[in-house]
Amino acid sequence: MPRHPDPRLEQRILDAACRLWGRGGPKSLTMRAVAKTAGTTTPTVYERYRDREDILRALRQQTRQDLFDALTHCHSLGHCCKRYLEFALERSHAYVVLFDGVAQPPSLHEPWPSFNLFRERLAQQLGGTPRDHTRLMLALWSLMHGTALLIIRGRATGMLRTQMIHACIDAFETVVASASTSRGKRHSGPKWPANLILGEGRQSRLHYHGTQQYDPQKKEQYDPGGSRAIGKAVGKRRR
User: Fold this and answer.
1) Number of neighbours of residue 136 by Cβ within 10 angstroms
2) What is the mean pLDDT of residues 62-91?
């Protein structure tokens, strides 16, 4: 009898890649190791993913979508912060993969739907446009991400873990409240450069010595309205 395709094979491959990364970082993520951990063959993995970077790209897309879905129904910014931390701690291996090299291509030029969701919520609460709050969002993101990694890498448990989570939420809400009363005040450091665009897929860019780092072959799309598009569906892989 002919063998039927396994509908969960691609998910098993991504889960295997995630576990391998969590155990040994980038050096442990080979196509052969992924195949063995996923319970399949190396040629089968290559039928679905070109190389290791293709697997990582699919994993980032899936994790971004899952994180966005987890935040979509939050009723307040503070609730978004709490849910963000819960997601990071529940899916710690995938979360660490997602943010490895996030400020460099190719991750830089992929959509960041949750980043944009936060910016949209900030614009709704504070006024202005989502882009007006990119600098504030970086501060809030650093706060949440730093707390998540401190708990994950520090292996915080019990009451310490609980206190760290709520300290982060309290600080998050304090920063947002302060932003609502300090509009127009000068910031430290240089003015936000017009050519520094984050979280907007193909529009995202950094300039290094006047050279824009951008790969025009990237297929992901960004919805200028904010955070509604995450590019190609994760499930659409080559057969």
Assistant:
1) 18
2) 95
3-state secondary structure of 111: strand
Residue 203 binned pLDDT confidence (cut-offs 50, 70, 90): low
Residue 231 phi/psi, 5-degree rounding, is 95, -155
Question: Which range among 20-24, 95-99, 211-215 has the greatest average pLDDT?
Answer: 95-99
Read off the tokens for 42. Answer: 């190396």
The alpha carbon torsion through 230, 235, 236, 237 (nearest 10 deg) reads 120
Q: Where are the alpha helices (DSSP H) in the chain?
A: 9-24, 31-38, 42-48, 52-72, 77-90, 92-99, 113-126, 134-154, 158-181
Average pLDDT, the chain: 83
Cβ neighbourhood burial of 202 (10 Å; 0-12, 13-18, 19+): middle
> Considering the entire predicted model, what is its pTM?
0.79
Sign (positive/negative) of CA torsion 213, 226, 147, 11? negative
Q: Look at residue 67 and give its three-state secondary structure.
A: helix
